[in-house]
Amino acid sequence: MIRSMFAAVQSLRNHQTFMDVVANNIANVNTTGFKSGRIDFQDVLNQTLRGAVAPSSTRGGVNPIQVGLGVGIAGIDNFQTQGDLQSTGRVTDLAIQGDGFFQLSDGQQIIYSRDGSFDVGADGKIVSPSTGLKVQGWQADEAGVVDTGQPITDISVPFGRMSPPLPTTKASIAGNLDNRVATGTAVTSVMKVFDSLGSPHNITLRFVKAQGNSWDWDATTTDTAILDANPLAAGTVTFDDAGLAQSDPALPEGTLNLTFDNGAAPAQGATAIGIEMDNLTGFAQQSTVNVDDQNGHEAGALTSFTIGPDGSVQGIFSNGFNQTLGRIALARFKNPGGLTRSGSNAFQLSVNSGLPIIGAPGDTGLGTVNSGTLEMSNANLAQQFTDMIRAQRGFQANSRMITTSDEMLQELIQLKR
Predict the structure, then answer these.
(1) Alpha-carbon distance 114 to 236, whole Å?
(2) Does residue 155 form part of some domain?
(3) What is the DSSP letter of 212?
(4) In 3-state terms, what secondary structure has residue 14?
(5) Predicted confidence (pLDDT) per residue in 118-148, tens digit
(6) Helix or strand or coil: residue 211?
(7) What's the CA gap between 118 and 126, in Å, rounded?
(8) Are 195 and 265 in contact (CB under 8 A)?
(9) Which domain holds residue 260?
(10) pTM higher than 0.70 for the full model?
(11) Are the CB atoms for 302 and 222 separated by under 8 Å?
């Protein structure tokens, strides 16, 4: 009788813990990146009233007789399942689709989180604004190259950083030159090139219909900063019967050797610009000639950035130039359920979690990151309310067991009367 009362008391205490776990899950149903918990029960001590007896030649075996002494908590598991993704539209809001964790540092230790509500601090670092912890990854070098074999560090977005100018060294001309027009018909197009200081210069390309399906072309300019005499270059583009530029590289290509008077020329005193015309066609269609592709740009300042699924932080400069600034790192664990909750939507290592396996988004087992989204809590309300009913009914049943045991004790005491 006393055993039943003590077993019920212990069960009340553990069902209260059950309710605490459910309450915490429900409280965090809207917490970004929250991972719900689940309580597991197990029986505890069993008092043996009679031991087991082995079978003999004349009698069969006898099973033991034991009385259980209550329930205990086997564990409270962390569910590391994927939560739903919610769109926010902020480039610094990141959600992991996979098993990885963000790595955040205070300079002394690293903690792990699925909460990707980040921002850029006053020092240019990508941080968690609620804690000030800095997001870890790899910073790109001046050429925009990221070495993921190096140790992870803070990631900076250097707003205002200048992108140096790049002189134009090649340009590709595309379009069509109508083979039906009369000899002497001219088609023009303007090409903008940049010197080594980023100063733009306009070059006019003129195509004049020659005999057969061929066109003479020349490059001229009215830019007084270019010292070379007009025409800057000239040549002929010839098309075959199919209207395609002939494969002889001497025909579809030209080279501009330009000299500038603003001190922007290379040490040789000239800038060579290769002009490719392989993409021109000579079909019986209206003439349209344009610059399809070229390198070179003026100087520009970093104005914004994007974050790709592979965690790469791409800087966008005012001159239209893009360059990699860094790459966010992720970590995974052999036993993510063994991580220790440390508050603020974060986890710490434990002796049973294993060491972090660090890699970049997209690597095996880490998952990818989605910019402009956040991972919501994985707490299922339907399951939590069902567990609440279970916890409540278990608590009520054990309360009734204490009441019944008390009534039996009362009957025992009244036997004396």
Answers:
(1) 62
(2) yes
(3) S
(4) helix
(5) 999 999 999 999 999 999 999 999 888 999 9
(6) coil
(7) 7
(8) yes
(9) 170-294
(10) yes
(11) no
